[in-house]
Design brief:
The chain has 6 helices and 44 strands. The chain is mostly beta strands. The strands form 8 sheets. The chain has a 22-stranded antiparallel barrel. Strand 32 and strand 33 form a beta hairpin. The radius of gyration is 28 Å and the shape is globular. The two termini are about 55 Å apart. The relative contact order is 0.12.
Length: about 800
């Protein structure tokens, strides 16, 4: 076994082996009690019943959180815990198949308190991992900043893409590209949003990018229509996941099987011949449960975009004793006329909604499978294992072009450059959670490991017509990678209300690049040519990193949480950036040299934050976070999607600083008036100063070397804000208004304000958007709900981006109407 593998295995074995030493188990047949109450201890007793029937609930484990004390209910649903330490503690009641519940109790010396429970039926989780969770105290237990968008919020907002949903979260900036959200560009706290490279994106806990380590681009974005909720983790809890955790972790959570068999059908249509059909059915039958769903979304002219997306997903699970098995399958197929080509300055002024490259076509297909296993070991330990595999093909047909003499117009050629890529990814990841004690302090430990492999096949094929999908292979290569990681995070109870959570993650990524065909420069009789040649050149390298983190949270009651934390951000260099062909000029018979490793280090940052979540009144919630990100090594990537037109020299260079605050407020006016309906007014605001730190010497277009130290980073708006008003009436009426603001942004390192003729460089002005949505569940036809929304209701015209290759315009006003039937 290689040395890094031995190191990871040793750490994991030690962590798992040490964890459950003091955990105790008990027979589920009888109530459990420990030593009789002694000075400094008390007792807890009570009864647990099922909420739906009121019947006694046997085999329920009641835990004193932060200790290893617990009891298991008997056939009458009763339990008793002796020898509990005095003070304010959380109790948790849990049972397989039932929803867990928590409450705070005060245990007094030599006294017995009574805590009775009513447990509902648990939601059926199939092949998924949540990074935050759905319990009411979930955010309070996170050692840092985090946010979750619930299913009810998604239902009210009716987002056309995840971009709309995510912009309500403080600290998030979403850069639009084609308007439909097919390519997600998500920036966190001033980080570059290009292809969401600085953010780990998951679906049900499984990575979704093309190749999570070697090519972490978000060319595939999970359809928001089939999501139950979204979770974003920005603090030190991110070290439980990886890689690409500089910005945090975004998790798309899909819906699981309902408890009772049920289904739904949604049909919508609107502007630009846009249409959406979505159907699903699922349920629970004894120990088995399952769900299947599909959607088809298409548009004929959505700001010039034609698209057709089909998505099919199925889940099945079986519960056997203390084991839970799940399987998830999904297929995604997309065809669109998406293009990198944006508008020039004059074309934008003439017709901002034209499509400049009518022959470009993107075809993307993805197959994915996830198998999961949950097992309860004793009463205090649970192990969850995910095994995953997916394949993504991304074939992008692009017509070749150049600019005219003024740079304000295009000259399209009768040829194509087809960028065809195929990716295969697989991995397995077990996670173990348990309770244990460290001296007199209670702890909750999560520890795990992952083995991960990925392979990419990348071809550039030159076609001989404007619509050719095939032709002569210009470039052909294979990139592979193997990653091993281990992680451990321990929630230490200093007091029942004060938790300290240190953690560490170890990452090792070994990668190889093998070029099979490329253009080779050769000089013959004084003339140099660059023609494609069959070659077999390769190189390999690896990176290893120790990623520490620590967070703390003080929750004296359910109304207040104060948190602070620090963690290391980690992103390995892209394989094709770290291993390069230097393209020397060769004589006719010279052999092509092997690839060169630039020996790029991982991209690293230190992330700091501190803040509070406060609910001073039942109808009022407040949130405030201050943050700082310091990059010790930022690698500048010359990707086409980021606007680069040539292969730049990469180096371990560049420090950046990100400083800012995030604030949020939510008021439920319905609760203020004690009304049966709800009116929730919410607002969020982010201020961030993201700048180059230290000397950064860059050559500008005129050939001058400029020090850009202190300049703002591209696509990092200083101010973003969002506000919403949601009316929810029990009669079935749900209305929502959303307003958002994005401040101005620079599109280059030099803070260039004036736009260039080709539209690629210049200021991206601030813009404001207003969305309106509503739905009404009718009292007739069973479960018929009428739905409608207006996006960009004021029809604001704005520049969303100046990349990849020119001005990208935000969507104009868009109206969608439809109906949903639940059965």
């Amino acid at each position: 076994m290689p040395r890094p593998a031995r190191l990871l295995a040793t750490v994991l074995v030690c962590a798992i082996g040490a964890a459950p030493i003091s955990a105790q188990t008990a027979s589920p047949a009888d109530p459990v009690s420990y030593a009789a109450a002694s000075p400094g201890t008390g007792s807890v007793t009570g009864t647990v019943r099922f909420a739906d029937s009121g019947a006694p609930a046997p085999d329920v484990t009641v835990i004193v959180v932060g200790t290893t004390l617990f009891a298991v209910t008997d056939s009458l649903g009763t339990y008793r815990i002796e020898g509990a330490p005095t003070g304010a503690y959380e109790l948790e009641a849990r049972r397989i198949g039932a929803a867990s519940a928590r409450r705070v109790v005060v245990i007094r010396e030599r006294e017995t308190i009574t805590a009775n429970w009513r447990l509902g039926v648990a939601s059926q989780e199939l092949a998924r991992v949540q990074v935050i969770g759905e319990r009411t105290d979930a955010l309070a237990r996170i050692p840092g900043s985090a946010a979750a968008i619930s299913g009810r919020q998604l239902l009210a907002q009716q987002p056309f893409s995840a971009n709309e949903a995510l912009r309500i979260i403080p600290g998030v900036h979403v850069q639009q590209e084609e308007g439909a959200g097919l390519r997600a560009n998500i920036g966190i706290r001033g980080l570059d949003p290009d292809r969401s490279r600085s953010l780990l994106v998951l679906e049900d806990g499984v990575p979704v990018t093309l190749a999570p380590y070697g090519e972490p681009e978000m060319y595939y974005s999970p359809p928001i229509e089939r999501m139950e909720r979204l979770e974003l983790l920005k603090g030190s809890g991110s070290i439980l996941f990886g890689p690409q955790t500089i910005g945090g972790v975004l998790n798309y959570v899909t819906a699981d099987a309902p408890l009772d068999p049920a289904g739904s059908l949604l049909v919508q249509g609107g502007t630009g011949a846009t249409r959406l059909v979505k159907a699903g059915y699922g349920g629970t039958w004894g120990v088995a449960r399952g769900t299947v769903g599909g959607l088809h979304k298409a548009a004929r002219d959505l700001n010039g975009l034609e698209l057709s997306v089909t998505d099919l997903t199925g889940k099945i699970g079986v519960r056997a004793g203390s084991n839970d098995f799940g399987l998830k399958l999904s297929i995604y197929d997309e065809s669109s006329n998406a293009t990198y080509v944006g508008l020039t300055d004059s074309l934008y002024r003439a017709d901002p909604h034209m499509h400049p490259a009518e022959n470009d076509r993107l075809r993307l297909r993805r197959y994915a499978i996830t198998a999961s296993h949950d097992r309860t070991l004793g009463q205090l330990t649970r192990i969850h294992t995910n095994a995953y595999a997916y394949q993504t093909t991304r074939d992008w047909q692009r017509q070749d072009y150049s600019y005219n003499a003024t740079g304000n117009g295009f000259v399209f050629r009768n040829s194509t450059g087809n960028r065809n890529r195929a990716f295969e990814v697989a991995g397995i990841e077990p996670r173990l959670r348990t309770a244990w004690t460290l001296g007199t302090l209670g702890s909750e430990l999560e520890v795990g490991a992952r083995a991960h492999v990925e392979r990419a096949r990348d071809q550039h094929i030159n076609g001989s017509s404007a619509t050719s999908r095939t032709g002569a292979i210009r470039d052909d290569e294979i990139r592979t990678g193997v990653a091993l990681s281990a992680f451990a995070q321990n929630r230490l109870f200093i007091t029942p209300s004060w938790h300290l959570t240190p953690g560490v993650r170890l990452e090792h990524f070994a990668f190889e690049r093998n070029i099979l065909r490329t253009r080779v420069a050769r000089t013959v009789n004084g003339t140099t040519t660059r023609n494609p040649e069959d070659v077999d050149i390769r190189s390999h390298d690896s990176v290893a990193e120790v990623i520490p983190g620590i967070g703390t949270a003080w929750t004296p009651n359910e109304l207040l949480t104060v948190f602070a934390g620090a963690h290391r951000g980690f992103a390995p260099p892209r394989t094709k950036d770290a291993l390069i062909y230097e393209n020397p000029t060769l004589a006719p018979n010279d052999q092509v040299p092997e690839l060169t490793s630039l020996q790029l280090d991982a991209e690293r940052s230190w992330n700091y934050e501190g803040g509070t979540r406060l609910t001073p009144l039942s109808f009022l919630s407040l949130e405030l976070t201050a943050f700082a990100l310091d990059f010790s090594n930022q690698i500048i990537e010359p990707s086409l999607s980021s606007g680069s037109v040539s292969q730049a020299t990469l180096a371990n260079q560049g420090r950046t600083k990100h400083r800012g605050i995030e604030a949020g407020i939510s008021v439920d006016i319905g609760k203020v008036l004690r009304a049966p309906w709800s009116v929730v007014a919410a607002a969020s605001y982010t201020a961030v100063d993201a700048v180059f730190d230290g000397d950064r010497l860059i050559e500008n277009a005129e050939g001058d070397t400029v020090n850009v130290s202190g300049n703002r980073l591209p696509y990092a708006p200083r101010n973003t804000a969002h506000a919403s008003l949601t009316f929810d009436h029990p009669a079935g009426l749900l209305l929502r208004v959303d307003g958002s603001y994005v401040g101005d942004q620079y599109s280059d390192n030099f803070e260039t304000r004036d736009g260039t003729p080709n539209g690629r460089i210049g200021l991206v002005p601030a813009h404001r958007l207003l969305d309106v949505s509503g739905q009404y569940r009718t009292p007739f036809l069973g479960g018929l709900t009428l739905i409608g929304s207006v996006k960009n209701a004021t029809d604001a015209q704005y520049i969303a981006s100046r990349r990849p290759e020119g001005i990208k315009v935000g969507l104009p006003r868009m109206v969608m109407l439809g109906a949903r039937v639940d059965f």
